[in-house]
Structures are given as C-alpha cells and as structure tokens.
Amino acid sequence: MTANASPYEFDRRSLFYPLITNYLILLAGFKEFGAAGLALLIKEMPQGRIQDLLTDAEKRGNIDQVRRLLDTTPLELYEPLVMVSEQSHEKVQIDLTLTMREIAQHSSFLVQRVAPAAMGGLLIQAYESTSDHHDRQPLWEFLRHCRNAAAHGGRFNLLHGEPHRPARWGRFSIEPTLHGTYLAARPERQGLLAPGDALRLLWDIEQAYPSIIDLSV
Question: What is the residue extent of each domain of the chain?
C-alpha cells in the first residue's frame, strides 16, 4: 500500500471497502467543516478586524489561505442535514452551519479526539464484519486486541493471561506490558497506533486474506 493510500486501493468487493470510505469521508469532512466554520467566523468580523487579520497573515506568510477563506461561501454549499428517526417517525434536521462554527471554535479540543474515535470505530466494525474469516493467526489477533481496546475506553485490557495467542502486525506486537496503554496516540500522550495505521493494517489483512472479498458481487 502506498503512502498516499486511497479507498480505491481496497477491492470494492471487500468487506473493508465501505468502512474505509466512511472513515476517510469522516476525517476529510471534519477538516472541511472546520475550515468552513472558520470562514464564517472571519466573514462576521468587523472590517477593521479583517484588515488586521490580513496584515498579520501577510507577515506570517499565510495570506493566501486567509484570502481563500474570505472568498469561501459555505452557506451556499451545505443545506441542512435531514435524517429520519424510526423512534419518533419524524425527521431530525441539523443546521450544518452550527456544526461548522462548533468545530472552528473548539478545534483544539476536537481535533485530538475525532481521529482516535473514528479510528476506533473503524477497527471495531472491521473486526465484527469479518467474524466468519477469523483464524486466530497473528494478524487477526492483533486486530482483535485493537478492537477490544477501542471498545473499552480506548486502552488495552490484557488481563487473565492475554494475549493468549501471538498477535503481531509488522514491527508491532501485543504484549502484556501494553496493558493500560492507549490504542491511539496523541501529541500529549503515548499510544500504539496513529490514524494512518488503521488503513495500513486493514490493507495488510485484505492482502493476506482474500477470502474477505465477495467474488459474487
């Protein structure tokens, strides 16, 4: 798998393909919505404040990025998100501009949490959706422990003799010393994996286990 992996490198018949696509859309959408929210906040500034921002951006060397935000019109691109609720038989409507503003105003908090949460969700779904193909070999065992960590507070829980079987992926190995360690690394703490590792792990599993590809599709 290349460093600039895209979902199209995964076989479209693979059980992983829709999960990977959803993962990339989630992360890309978070980034895009954050930029759109920042554009909304900038446009609402008094003209004098905008000019000060441009002057400062020119000194910092990011004047082109700020000008692009000023030229962006996110309100024209995103209509409210409407979702059906089976419980109430009503439609739930979300004003996406409020989501944009929320991300822009709290980006320092959210950016460190959205990617690990998305990665954990991907690994949980990837493991559960392939249950018929697990053979207790090191790659599947590695994914199993990552799945368990993601589903239980984001930390490895290696009690009661775990790992019972070898669990390896590349240079990584699940050992009892990982107990209590975070699955996802952040700038302020150590962890085993980063968001890109989820793609690489599932790619390696897909290559090693072509049985997860539905040839009838």
Answer: 7-212
